[in-house]
């Protein structure tokens, strides 16, 4: 049992390092000093104002990713409510089972919540992840009038779906609102790539330059999280 606990601790720490893009030396510390290294990592990198129960849930999710899904399925069997279906859909998305998650959201919307914007946004994301671009567009058009749609992830995915459907002008119109200072770094990099492909290198370079400038003022967690994006930005801006 002690051995399995150590393995579980290591798996969680490695998962956390990958998820948050921590420095590479953490891999060596965790792998070669399993107990001490993992404890040091958790104390210095995880327990930084984070809730203990959340960390415990993450460990369970890494060791047994389907446990949460199975528990929520039982809740749906006991009480097939809108919220239980949505919770199950959320859990399925967490393990990247978008097809099953979509099914749960679709069932949830069959009742008295047919136009619930929160669930429509989740469906939109799932449809994009499963390359159902026509359905992404359909969902986006349902919620495009909502105040929080402009500049949102939903509008960004809508723009990408429009591009997949060959509607480039509309795509650009819906991709550009994601360009917001000190946020959305990955999406803004994607926008810059889009502009380069459309023969607009000057606009793309402006976005890339802003990202590089902002990266100088990132907090340490954000520097770790977005290191890969910033490196890609540097390479791309040099090639323009």
Quick structural gist:
This protein has 240 residues and is mostly helical. Among the domains are: 61 residues, no CATH class; 60 residues, no CATH class. It is 75% helix and 0% strand.
Q: What does this 3D model show about the protein?
A:
The structure is a single chain. This protein is mostly helical and 240 residues long. Among the domains are: 2-62, no CATH class; 181-240, no CATH class. Helix content is 75%, strand content 0%. Helix 1 (2-20) packs antiparallel against helix 2 (25-32), helix 1 packs across helix 3 and helix 6 (82-94) packs antiparallel against helix 7. The chain is flat and about 60 Å long.
What's the topology here?
Elements: H1 2-20, H2 25-32, H3 34-46, H4 52-63, H5 67-78, H6 82-94, H7 98-108, H8 117-129, H9 133-143, H10 153-164, H11 168-175, H12 185-197, H13 201-215, H14 220-225, H15 227-239
Strand tally is 0
Q: Strand portion, in percent?
A: under 5%
- Amino- and carboxy-terminal Cα gap: 56 Å
Q: Number of helix segments?
A: 15
Structural class: mainly alpha
Could you describe the largest sheet, including whether it forms a barrel? none
Quaternary structure of the protein: single chain
Q: Which sequence of SSEs, written as H and E, runs from N to C? A: HHHHHHHHHHHHHHH
Using the CA coordinates, give the radius of gyration: 21 Å
- Overall pLDDT, averaged? 88
- Broad shape: flat
Task: Give the proportion of residues in helices.
Answer: over 70%
Unreliable segments of 5+ consecutive residues: none
